[in-house]
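Try this one yourself first.
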């Protein structure tokens, strides 16, 4: 039942994105923080949910109306330079395999953060973005907090005195 619910939510995000492109950006944030593909059992673990939403986000970025007020600011330029620096330092990493694994997810996050300001155009978009961040984080951390409250944490280790 949980897999079906998360799959329907995922498909609903994709469908609603055709009405408003920023929904795809919110969906990408939800997928990266909550990770429904790790919670679901049947369909979502077998498909690349982040990659599919990333393609829709890039498509949505092209669909956005051109607004002269939205320009590449210095923060965006510095973020792109950070991504370039991360890629450059990957070349002389001491443990290239482990460094590439970290670089792989870090560069996606850094470059996605360059796209976010183009989608957040008014107060409603910003509030929706903040609510997505907060609720995704809560949904991700809630099971772990419940485990700590019930069992006391400790990774299921019993201390013998």
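Now uncover the answer:
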């Amino acid at each position: 039942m949980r897999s079906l619910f998360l799959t329907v939510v995922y498909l609903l995000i994709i469908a609603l994105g055709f009405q408003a492109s920023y929904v795809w950006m919110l969906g990408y944030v939800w997928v990266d923080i909550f990770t429904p593909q790790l919670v679901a059992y049947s369909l979502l673990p077998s498909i690349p949910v982040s990659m599919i939403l990333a393609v829709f986000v890039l498509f949505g970025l092209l669909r956005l109306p051109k607004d002269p007020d939205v320009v590449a600011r210095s923060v965006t330029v510095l973020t792109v330079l950070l991504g370039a620096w991360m890629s450059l330092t990957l070349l002389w990493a001491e443990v290239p395999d482990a460094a590439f694994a970290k670089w792989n997810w870090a560069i996606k996050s850094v470059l996605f953060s360059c796209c976010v300001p183009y989608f957040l155009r008014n107060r409603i978009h910003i509030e929706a973005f903040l609510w997505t961040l907060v609720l995704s984080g809560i949904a991700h951390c809630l099971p772990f907090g419940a485990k700590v409250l019930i069992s006391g944490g400790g990774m299921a280790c019993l201390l013998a005195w």
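Discussion: The helical segments are 2-17, 22-34, 36-39, 49-63, 74-90, 96-119, 123-151. The two ends are 43 Å apart (CA to CA).
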